[in-house]
Amino acid sequence: MSSSVKPFIVVGNWKMYKTSEEAVNFVENLIPYAETASSQVYLAVPFTCMDPVAVMCKGTKIIPGAQNMNDRDDGPFTGEISGKMLQSVGAQFVILGHSERRQIFQESNEFINRKIKKAIELNIRPILCIGETASERDKTQTTQVLTSQIKHGLNALKGDQIAELILAYEPIWAIGAKQAASPEVVQKIHFFCRNYIADQYGITVSEKISILYGGSVTQENAKLLMEQNDVDGFLVGSASLNVESFGKIINNSKGSPSKN
Ligand code: PEP
Known about the structure:
With 260 residues, this protein is α/β, with parallel strands linked by helices. It is 43% helix and 15% strand.
């Protein structure tokens, strides 16, 4: 099942790194790389720099977004940020269900599903992260874990809504690790996910949905990973913190526009 007609999407996930000043400086330097990028460039920034980054990204090829949101519009939820608030400062997409949110902040599939519905309602494109732990992988539970995360995460969504969202396969054992999952493993799992989506929601949805890989993507391993048929893009953590390494990944590892 080919997925080659879709644009290749590369999402930088800054996690809890960069002050507003550092973010502005980074985006200034990323713009020239983004101009010639063969990938669509998404940048998931901390809440505190969403506003200045979104302003800077206007008229550029960088799409600004957030790393999380609450499923309510407002209310007595100390410390939370709503999708409505993100929308008002220019967020165009949001990462939901990242393994760090699931593991450290105990986010359930049900909560993630509510957030996805709210993001869609607000026209903020959701990126649903899924992935198994090393121990689940070793117990050959990977496909079971992934299908449960997809099934519950997408509960009660319509096919055309699912087709528009982004799925990110992020094996937890490969996040922030020395090595990414092998291209063969990534292709096998992406193919499995696409087939599962075809079974559940139809072939058209499975062909339209973008399935990204995340977990220690670098400028060195990006080329082999992106050649896999069912890899429609990357979710990049550590390597997105450095403008040169991120710039090379968005330019398909062929080097930066300014350096060629
Ligand atoms: C992530 O946290 O989403 C991620 C993929 O991180 P890293 O690239 O550092 O493994």
